[in-house]
Amino acid sequence: MIDEETVLDCLRQVYDPELGINIVDLGLIYSVEVEEKRVRVAMTTTTRACPLNSYLRDAAVAAIRQRVSPQTEVQVDIVWDPPWNPAMMSEKARQQLGW
Fold this sequence. Notes:
- The protein is α+β, with helices and mostly antiparallel strands.
- It has helices at about 5-10, 55-65, 90-95, and strands at about 15, 20, 30-35, 40-45, 75-80.
- It has a three-stranded mixed sheet, covered by helices on one side. A two-stranded antiparallel sheet has the order 1-2.
- It starts with a helix and ends with a helix.
């Protein structure tokens, strides 16, 4: 069975193509819920107008699907509350951006 940390490891393989930083370190992942046959992730993007919303959501689903059974439901929701801000990034992401 997959757990929250494994899901986060999967999501670390998904990179924002504009910044070259994974979505976990960018602070885009708000929550991960794992049940026996279901994985649900709430995530955001850096702005509501981000043209990569669908791409990042689909990439997140695909990354998780690589580690779960075909019978497991994978749901990734894009949410806007709270709005993302740079303070949500990990120290590693800030260093990569030279902050």
